[in-house]
Amino acid sequence: MRYVALVLIVLFAGCSTKQYERKPKMVTLKTPQIKFADLGYLSSSNGGVQLELYVVGKALLGIEIDGMVCVRGEGCMTKSSFNDTYLYDAYPPDLLKNILLGKPIYNGEGVQRSDGEFSQTIKTPEVDIRYIVNRYQTYFKDRKNNILIKIKDTK
After folding, report:
1. pTM of full prediction above 0.70
2. Partner of 116 at 20 to 30 A CA spacing, among 1, 7, 39, 57?
3. pLDDT for 97-142, tens place per residue?
4. Phi, psi angle pair for 2, to nearest 5°
5. Contact by Cβ (8 Å): 82, 94
6. Would residue 121 count as lying in a domain?
């Protein structure tokens, strides 16, 4: 009987929801579909990332990225479909996830590193991107497509 109970505990623990470490951030999102500048919570766990956006203490938008991108109230979609709908269709599928996690984009193309910080400038006929990650903020600006993503610590 003890072994059955142990097996059930292990099975249910493996199927439990992910535990994210929530960090408050000041978030600015300016895309063709989203205009937002206020408090948000950024959480990550085992390769997954979650962004919750609030206005006057009420949840406005929630985005969870793991294998798929799930938008609260909209359902789940592929990363490419998310880019088509909310960002720009030529972006790599993991672009938003890498920005939220503060990782290099476009497979590290043009990355310049110094003292634990990095920046990238990517110019193609489709994009004109400036991307900066340091200990205080993550800044992504695509001038050609009028997209801005800025995530700053609240302290």
Report:
1. yes
2. 39
3. 999 999 999 999 999 999 989 999 999 999 999 999 999 999 999 9
4. -60, -35
5. no
6. yes
- Give the distance between the most distant pair of CA atoms in the chain: 66
Q: In what order do the strands lie in the sheet with 112-114?
A: 75-77, 69-71, 58-65, 48-55, 35-45, 21-30, 147-153, 137-142, 128-133, 117-123, 112-114
Structural domain for 50, as ranges: 17-153
> Could you tell me if 67 and 78 are in contact, meaning their C-beta atoms sit under 8 angstroms apart?
no
Instruction: Report the first-to-last Cα separation within the chain, whole angstroms.
Output: 52
C-alpha–C-alpha distance, residues 83 and 6, integer Å? 43
Residue 137 contacts residue 153 (beta carbons within 8 Å): yes
The CATH number of whichever domain residue 99 belongs to comes to 2.50.20.10
Whether 87 and 99 have beta carbons less than 8 Å apart is answered as no
- Helix ranges (H only) for 15-149 are 79-86, 95-101
Domains in the chain: how many in total?
A: 1
Whether the Cβ atoms of residue 64 and residue 43 lie closer than 8 Å to each other: no
Residue 1 inside a domain? The answer is no
Q: Does residue 96 belong to any structural domain of this protein?
A: yes
What's the pLDDT tens digit per position in 30-70?
Answer: 999 889 999 999 998 887 999 999 887 788 889 999 989 99
Give a yes or no: residue 3 inside a domain: no
